[in-house]
Amino acid sequence: MIGTALAGLIAAVLVLVSLYRRADDHRRDAEDRFTELLAERGRSELLAERPQRALVYLAAAYERGRDGPGMRVALAQAARAMDREQSRVRGHRLDPALHMKSELLVSSAHGEPARSWRLDGGKLEPVATFAHPGDSERYFLDVSPSGNTVVSGGHDSRAVRVWDRTGKLLATSEVTADALNVDLVAVGSDDLIATRWSNVVALWDRNARQLGLLGAVDDRSNQMATDLVFSDDAGRLAVGFRDGLVQLWDPRARKLIWSHDLRERVVGVSIAGDRLLAATLSGAVVGFSARGQVEFRVQAHSTVFGVSVSPDSTRFATAGAEPSVKIWSARDGRQLATLAHGKEIYSVRYSPDGKALVARTNESVATLWDAERHLVLGRVDAGGELRDVVFAKDSKALVTSDNVGRIQSWDVRPDSLVS
């Protein structure tokens, strides 16, 4: 009897052990499945560009023992995406323009104070606010190459206002009572400023003292400047006019170097070394020698939206009313390359080191190309309709602004870009 009972007890214990082991196996399987679900959810959140959620799920999976090269890569991607997410700033209500000639970024939007930012470790940190009186109206702004001088004019007044980089108003000067609004501003150096009103270009110093006027060469009623651009050393000032004049000035001596009449509206001017480029309303780009002689004329697009000169002044890129960027020789106007894109390009810029180009459409994605090999390096998606795109001075970061006022910084080093 005892033997039979003992045998039955042993059999029962063995059944219980077997059940426990199966239950333990099921529990481990369930835990493994749950851990896998956490990892999958983390990867899904990362693909959906929600890095904070992705980091929570991926970290939970990692703590539950889900390790390996794939998990470590996903965690690193989520951490980098979090850094990008934290660098995004809502800087304005609508459509900010960006100005970045030094390490200081200045953003401006109609009806709001301008603001300056510093890129610190890839993140945008606010520096100062430039409160232009009458901010309900449209105004115009530029920054000196050093970033130490910020200048504005506007439709709300005839004043020229000068600030330092901390937002301190240094000087204000009213232009003549019968002048139109100051609606074109260019800053060549901390102490040399050009503004446009009516058919006159005025020069100012940092104290808003007027240095002189650069008048048009005749009295045509529509002789209004459409663009003002200083050379890098501020030794020359290029001016394009509505009625077709292109002029090059020595701004410090207030002396006209040369003038040429294209007899069609000039929409933009650029300086490329000792040469000058003028874009026309008809989509042409005209190249001038140092003495003002026409060296070439190319029909770049049906309409030119943007021209960017390479830092070494040997090439220029154009964007226009067609889905491509074109690269040209600044010496003779030969077309060197066409970079195909699926959308109309509204602006194009060379990076400060000359190695990359960025193109902006009116959608959310900016595309970067290798400027030498003409290959796509990658894209950044701002999440809203792009309004402006600029490179940081070290060419390692890109700053975008969109239609809802967001200003965002992006790491555009090759290993950080999404193809």
The major beta sheet can be summarized as: 4 strands, antiparallel
Structural class: alpha+beta
Strand content: 35-45%
Number of helical stretches of at least 4 residues: 3
Overall 3D shape: elongated
In whole angstroms, the N-to-C terminal distance is 79 Å
With strands numbered from the N-terminus, the spatial order across the biggest sheet is 1-32-31-30
The number of distinct β-strands equals 32
User: Which bin fits the share of residues in helices?
Assistant: 10-25%
Averaged pLDDT: 84
> In angstroms, what is the radius of gyration?
30 Å
Q: Uncertain runs with pLDDT below 50, 5 residues or more?
A: none
Describe this structure in words.
The strands form eight sheets. A four-stranded antiparallel sheet has the order 1-32-31-30. Strands 2-3-4-5 form a four-stranded antiparallel sheet. A hairpin with a 3-residue loop joins strand 19 and strand 20. The radius of gyration is 30 Å and the shape is elongated. 19% of the residues lie in helices and 43% in strands. It contains three helices and 32 strands.
Question: What is the topology?
Answer:
Elements: H1 2-47, H2 51-63, H3 69-87, E1 89-90, E2 97-99, E3 104-108, E4 114-120, E5 123-130, E6 139-143, E7 149-154, E8 159-164, E9 169-174, E10 185-189, E11 192-197, E12 200-204, E13 210-215, E14 225-230, E15 237-241, E16 245-250, E17 255-261, E18 266-272, E19 275-280, E20 284-288, E21 294-299, E22 304-309, E23 315-320, E24 324-329, E25 335-340, E26 347-350, E27 356-360, E28 365-370, E29 376-381, E30 386-391, E31 397-402, E32 406-411
Antiparallel strand pairs: 1-32, 2-3, 3-4, 4-5, 6-7, 7-8, 8-9, 10-11, 11-12, 12-13, 14-15, 15-16, 16-17, 18-19, 19-20, 20-21, 22-23, 23-24, 24-25, 26-27, 27-28, 28-29, 30-31, 31-32
Helix pairs in contact: 1-2, 1-3, 2-3
